[in-house]
Amino acid sequence: xxxxxxxxxxxxxxxxxxxxxxxxxxxxxxxxxxxxxxxxxxxxxxxxxxxxxxxxxxxxxxxxxxxxxxxxxxxxxxxxxxxxxxxxxxxxxxxxxxxxxxxxxxxxxxxxxxxxxxxxxxxxxxxxxxxxxxxxxxxxxxxxxxxxxxxxxxxxxxxxxxxxxxxxxxxxxxxxxxxxxxxxxxxxxxxxxxxxxxxxxxxxxxxxxxxxxxxxxxxxxxxxxxxxxxxxxxxxxxxxxxxxxxxxxxxxxxxxxxxxxxxxxxxxxxxxxxxxxxxxxxxx
Length: 284
Ligand SMILES: [Zn+2]
What we know:
Layout: H1 2-7, H2 10-17, H3 44-49, H4 69-86, E1 89-90, H5 94-106, E2 116-120, E3 127-130, E4 134-138, H6 139-144, H7 147-162, H8 165-172, H9 176-185, H10 192-207, H11 215-231, H12 237-252, H13 267-283
Parallel strand pairs: 2-4
Antiparallel strand pairs: 1-2, 3-4
Helix pairs in contact: 4-10, 5-7, 7-11, 7-12, 9-10, 11-13, 12-13
Bound molecules: zinc ion (ZN).
């Protein structure tokens, strides 16, 4: 983390530590208190009453009303250029991340997007995704996670891409019209349009605008991730053990998770919700 701090401005650091798998700012906690009752073999109707994922079960995902997928991919290319200016990418662990990540991508509800997985050199444990199929994890996260746990993180990040969370955030931003127009006119990486777009996207990456998600978006990515894991060949328990590892690190070495993580102690809720969903998947 010291290393990454010396490379980037504090705003960028704040942005990256608050993204992802780690818990977002300002989150209202909604504890899933009654899920244990399902162990008493309550009927599904009772389980559904407490279903933490009821909002997402029948969701259909597309780019309708958002940037077209073609413009999204162009945006992703430009955003990735800004990421490479701010972070040290490395090949360390990349083969493993790529292999596991593509398994998540193939079974996702958005299998036709081209996904690109990247590893950032950092002591901080983190991961995030950007529009157009770019997924990033840090070397520290890659070292911490076993196969199933890395599958959990990457299936979660693919979930953000399936649900177009960053695109929805962008659509609500005041920069949206300018960016959409620039992408429409963009023909290459050179020229004044590309330059102006690069400046504003650099600021967006720096502010973490597209990588900070709401509590509901995190819940949705958890849901899509855990549902995808068995089909991708991972044990969904890996999502639980990953959260438990993060919980432990939060107690013992919280600076590795970034300052924001310690403000949001709802990992237990995410564990409870994941347990609920695994139980539900087993019953079907
Ligand atoms: Zn997330």
